[in-house]
Design a protein that fits this description.
Strand 4, helix 4 and strand 5 form a beta-alpha-beta unit. Helix 2 packs parallel to helix 3. The protein has a domain of 94 residues: Response regulator (Rossmann fold, 3-Layer(aba) Sandwich), CATH 3.40.50. The radius of gyration is 14 Å and the shape is globular. The model has no long low-confidence stretch (mean pLDDT 92). It has 139 residues and is α/β, with parallel strands linked by helices.
């Protein structure tokens, strides 16, 4: 059995990827990665603002292809609190838990918490590409 090696340049996609992170530099880095793969990054500082944006997008007849939620947002709604509301708006979109705290049980068992998968921060573009390739393969 051979294993195909995926590099960031191999994965290309379309659609909007919602990124929630309280750290501006992380939002900017992830947006650059996501945009470089052909997606359009939609950035939010916390879950509350993200859900407002999602409601507006849905009202306009558009959709979110996938989302990356930082689990811990000091003073705001993090990924664990946001997932339920997001899934009510976009039930079919994959949602990826993201955290620098590797001991968080959500990172170890994302499906137990309603997430599709998880990615530990800091992550490389190639790791993001592998995850997108697995869950967002375009037809």
């Amino acid at each position: 059995m051979t294993h195909e090696i995926i590099i960031a340049e191999d994965h290309k996609g379309i659609g909007t990827i919602l990124v929630i992170d309280d750290e501006e530099f992380m939002r900017e880095i992830v947006a650059k990665m996501v945009n470089g793969m052909g997606y359009q990054a939609l950035l939010a500082v916390d879950g509350e603002k993200a859900l407002e944006q999602c409601a507006l997008i849905k009202k306009q007849g558009n959709t979110i292809r996938a989302a990356i939620f930082d689990l811990t947002i000091p003073g705001g709604m993090g990924g664990k609190e946001t997932i339920k509301g997001f899934k009510e708006i976009f039930p079919d979109a994959p949602v990826f838990a993201s955290s620098g705290f590797s001991e968080d049980p959500t990172i170890a068992r994302p499906r137990d918490f309603g997430f599709t998968d998880s990615i530990r921060k800091p992550y490389k573009e190639s790791e993001l590409a592998i995850m997108f390739e697995k869950y967002l393969k375009d037809i």
